[in-house]
Write a structure and sequence with these properties.
This protein is α/β, with parallel strands linked by helices and about 280 residues long. Helix content is about 35%, strand content about 15%.
């Protein structure tokens, strides 16, 4: 199935959800998580894109789990797409990965640390797939105008811009919610990453820590601000997750939070159908 781009263009439409485990831990786990989240979002009638990384090339430690790699990883994601019937998002790290990834993925993601890499962005854009570009922790929201221009210059159609917090001293992030309407003025859908925004980068020495208890507060605030989409990594056993467990939403809490977000979104957009873009 091809992604229904109209559902993810923002502009006053119902909010959409990008969700899944941080990394593909196994074929069985990936399929199980995709089925659980697909069933939940269908019940709640929330447009949904399944997310899982096949290679985490930016882990803190050389000994950290990276995933199955592009070969096996893309095969697993292709099976998810075929068997579960949901659009798929994963990240790429090098320009020569773009074409192979685009044969499977509906959305190519540019990681935050790589959001200024011109060749990577343009290789992804030239595939014709939708893009999700994460704003670097080191960038101001208005700096995303130049990032977006690189994608559009290469022919991109649907480009999502994702806020995932800004560096706040060492091993900490803070969210400036003004960044959401500022980036929305660029005329593209804006996503809020509620789980990476509660990371404590490198906070555990050889791995990243997190404060998952704050996910609901930040997610609700972003939807109340009129954001177009929410990015939320979910795991059925965060304490055993092979990547980003400390900042993952527990699957058991997903229905309650996503239901709240849907109600907030409906209320906000009934009063203000579209976020200001000027």
């Amino acid at each position: 199935m091809a992604v229904n781009k109209d559902a993810f263009r923002g502009g006053g439409r119902p909010f959409f959800l990008i969700s899944g485990p941080c990394v593909i831990e196994s074929r069985e786990h990936c399929l199980r998580m995709a089925e659980s989240l697909a069933s939940l979002t269908r019940m709640l009638e929330i447009p949904f894109i399944f997310k899982a990384s096949y290679d985490k090339a930016n882990r803190t430690s050389i000994r950290s789990f990276r995933g199955p790699g592009p070969g096996e990883g893309l095969e697993i994601l292709a099976e998810v797409r075929r068997e579960i019937g949901v659009p798929i998002l994963s990240d790429i790290h090098q320009p020569d990965q773009a074409q192979a990834a685009a044969e499977v993925l509906d959305v190519l993601q540019i990681p935050a640390f790589l959001c200024r890499q011109t060749d990577l962005i343009q290789a992804a854009a030239s595939t014709g797939r939708a893009l999700n570009i994460k704003k670097g922790q080191f960038l101001a929201p208005w700096d995303m105008e130049n990032v977006l221009a690189k994608a559009l210059d290469a022919g991109a159609d649907l480009v999502l811009l994702t806020e995932r917090g800004a560096s706040f001293g060492y091993n900490n992030l803070v969210v400036d919610f003004k960044s959401l309407p500022i980036m929305r003025r660029l005329g593209r859908p804006v996503v809020f990453d509620a789980t990476h925004s509660v990371q404590l980068p490198g906070g555990k020495g050889s791995s990243t820590g997190g404060q998952a208890e704050f996910i609901p507060y930040l997610a609700r605030a972003a939807v109340a601000a009129g954001v177009d989409g929410i990015f939320c990594e979910v795991h059925d056993e965060p304490s055993k997750a092979l990547s980003d467990g400390p900042n993952a939403l527990h699957l058991e809490k997903a229905e309650e939070l996503f239901s709240q977000l849907k109600r907030i979104d409906e209320l906000v957009k009934s009063m203000e159908p579209e976020m200001e873009t000027d």
